[in-house]
Amino acid sequence: MGKEITLGDFDTILSEGGPWQIGGFPLPDGSFWTYREPEAVVIVRNGMLYVRAPLSRKHDQIQILDNAKHMYYSKEPIEVPENGEVSFEFQIRARTQDTVPGDLYDGYVSVNLLDFTTGAALDFFASNDQYSSVYGVLPFPNVEVPETSQTKYFCIFKEDTAHFEEQAFNTYRITYNRGNDEVIYSVNGKEVRREENVPLKFNQFTVALGIMTEKDLTPEGSVSVHGQTVTGEWSPIKVTVEE
After folding, report:
1. Is the pLDDT at 57 greater than 90, yes or no?
2. Which of 35, 86, 145, 235 might form a disulfide with 91, Cβ 3.0–4.6 angstroms?
3. How far apart are CA 121 and CA 64, in angstroms?
4. Is beta strand 131-137 parallel, antiparallel or unpaired with respect to 229-234?
5. Secondary structure of 188-226 as H, E, C letters
């Protein structure tokens, strides 16, 4: 039997003493880039977190800073057992306005598992009508990524609609087995993806709840904001740690 942790307490989302904080990254000039939309409406009811955000934030030079618009990080990371596994199960619902039809990456809701000791990112993204599972190692600011025999940085997205109900709460699960070097993604109890032979040992995960876009920077800068609004709802995260 594994150890179970519930990461919720959204009623303290605005408190310094709660388990969540606004996400972001320190910059080389000493400033801090904050993932916070100034016009976001934040509501907590029935134990669920609701955020409605007209998108306005953008960064013209650094892709990772442009992607996330409004995001909360868990203050304490979840440690991964040396030879065991950790699972994260949660519900999210996404509803968007004025996004490009059929383009998930024009505005979506996310749960991101981020290992700031290796650059790992294991995520689910959801829009009105589809979802994407994400498996990557990214160049986060101030994070040293270990060298491997594979490509140092990568991010593999897999878009799908299988086992998914549009504009509704769907249940997602990400399981990482450190001993087997394996990641398993499930939607509404059905496995939708399995990544084997993970090239790095991931050590811990900060849980991030986000409203995001994923649009490549152009020579003229960011093109990720054009008047769209994204509404996200998140359940508490149920974490199971198996030694």
Report:
1. yes
2. 235
3. 12
4. unpaired
5. CCEEEEEECCCCCCCCEEEEEEEEECCCCCECCECCCCC
Q: How far apart are CA 177 and CA 165, in angstroms?
A: 28
Rounded Cα distance, 214 and 66, in Å = 8
Domain boundaries in the chain? 3-80+90-169+198-242
pLDDT per residue as tens digits for the range 176-211: 999 999 999 999 999 999 999 999 999 999 999 999
Q: Which two tokens stand for residue 175?
A: 């399981």
C-alpha 63/C-alpha 235 separation (Å) is: 28
pLDDT at 29: 87
The second-level CATH assignment, the architecture, of 3-80+90-169+198-242 is Sandwich (2.60)
Tokens 């997205």 belong to: 157
Q: Do the bridges between strand 204-212 and strand 78-79 make them parallel or antiparallel, or are there none, so unpaired?
A: antiparallel
> Residue 12 phi/psi, 5° resolution?
-105, 15
**Token pair of 168 as six digits:** 């509704």
d(CA 121, CA 115): 7
